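not sure who needs this but someone in the group chat was asking about GOLI4 protein from Tyrannus savana so here u go. i didnt clean anything up, its just raw.
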Amino acid sequence: GVFLYNHLQQKVRNAEALAQKYKQQQEALSAQLQVVYEHRSRLERSLQKERGEHKKTKEDFLVYKLEAQEALNKEKQDSMNRYGALSSQHKILKNQHDDVKKQLLDLQLQHNSLKLEHRKAVESHSQKYAQLQQEKDSEVTNLQDTVFKLREESKLLRKAHQEVHSQLLNAQAQMEEFRQLKEALQKMPGFR
């Protein structure tokens, strides 16, 4: 009985020691669990805060996305309007360019035609000028010949005039002599 009692006592002590050990482990585990709970609680609060911030960020992002979409649509509409205006202006400018190009071609054709007419007119004028110059030179030569001949005739006429004048003076002198002779003869009584 003593042996059994001692054995049981030993078992009780062992059991108490084991219980004490388990109790310490439980307390340690409880402390660790408390730390884990607190950590979990902090994490949950942090997660809740993150979720709130994420929700706010998501709402802000949705608002920003909506505003950006509206701005993009407005910009797209403005771009389409500008494109339409530019396209219309481009068509007008293209038509004006085509008209100017056509006018340029017409003016080039007209210029070439006028250039040809001008060249023909210049050639014709050159020919007429050369002909007139030749006629003028010929006429000048003829006039110079005529002037030379007229000068020669004038010299001859002057010479003849001087001769006639001299003869006339001689004739007047002879007439005066004849008159004086006649008067002298008339005064003579026997001559009558």
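also Residues 2-187 form the longest helix (186 residues). if thats useful
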